[in-house]
Structure to design on (290 residues):
């Protein structure tokens, strides 16, 4: 009897990648690496310090059970407000406030003020509002929220389904992507994942396709090749929006949030061409479009 040959087919890539335990530490390292060559170097250095503080707070979060997030609908709960306030306190305690251009944090926020900042950040994370008018307290609250939401994503070990592929928002928390990354190595080389602006989860998305309206043939790419070869703006002539694409093959250390903040010149260039930004970055104070 002749054995029937077995044809081995490659397994499907994972739909959802939970954030790595060193997410905030890697962001801090990347921001410090980018800062010396940037006009915004002092701000990037301060954000690096903020990410280092986030890493410490995240390590503390991992040892404490929580059940107050699950979904963003819990934003008004007393438990969540208390949790964000505690993380915020941890961040402030570790921050070099002298680098804030004279603007120091308020050690205490009234619950109503904190709830307002949380709500503003959630609306921005969901791309339901623009980011103009954001202040230092919004960024600080966003940093605390990222720690809480990322810890929740790690704790739940969220697993995506086939239906989550090419999703328009994060399959775990429902927030918008801050951009996409093309991976290199680790068995995922060449695969494209969008990264959540809030919880840090990544979900698989096909390439050469607008992540905003799903159009394909009208997608084009703009970049500042000499200054930032690992970052390109993916523009769409169908919806006239754009998001950024980050290439690990061109810089293995590339980190979507950090490299996005460091390439605001690209946003200016693309905006001058008539494309609107739709991807929220909670560490940007101006310019995120709905």
């Amino acid at each position: 009897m002749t054995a029937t040959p077995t044809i081995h087919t490659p397994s499907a890539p994972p739909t959802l990648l939970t954030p790595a335990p060193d997410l905030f530490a890697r962001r801090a390292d990347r921001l410090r690496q980018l800062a010396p060559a940037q006009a915004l170097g002092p701000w990037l250095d301060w954000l690096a310090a903020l990410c280092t503080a986030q890493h410490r707070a995240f390590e503390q979060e991992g040892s404490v059970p929580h059940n107050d997030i699950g979904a963003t609908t819990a934003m008004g709960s007393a438990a969540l407000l208390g949790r964000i306030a505690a993380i915020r306190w941890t961040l402030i305690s570790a921050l070099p406030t002298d680098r804030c251009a004279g603007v120091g944090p308020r050690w205490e926020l009234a619950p109503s003020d904190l709830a307002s900042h949380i709500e503003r950040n959630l609306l921005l994370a969901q791309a339901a509002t623009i980011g103009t008018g954001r202040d230092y307290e919004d960024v600080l609250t966003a940093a605390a929220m990222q720690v809480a939401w990322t810890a929740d994503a790690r704790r739940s070990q969220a697993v995506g389904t086939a239906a989550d592929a090419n999703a328009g928002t994060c399959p775990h928390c429902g927030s918008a992507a801050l951009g996409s990354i093309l991976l290199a190595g680790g068995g995922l080389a060449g695969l494209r994942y969008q990264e959540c602006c809030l919880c840090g989860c990544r979900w698989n998305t096909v390439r050469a396709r607008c992540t905003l309206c799903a159009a394909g043939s009208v997608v084009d790419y703009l970049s500042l090749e000499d200054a930032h070869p690992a970052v390109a703006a993916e523009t769409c002539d169908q919806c006239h929006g754009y998001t950024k694409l980050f290439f690990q093959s061109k810089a293995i250390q590339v980190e979507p949030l950090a490299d996005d903040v460091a390439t605001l010149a690209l946003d200016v260039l693309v905006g001058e061409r008539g494309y609107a930004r739709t991807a929220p970055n909670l560490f940007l104070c101006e310019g995120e479009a709905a």
Observations:
- The two ends are 65 Å apart (CA to CA).
- The chain has seven helices and eight strands.
- The first strand starts at residue 16 and ends at 17.
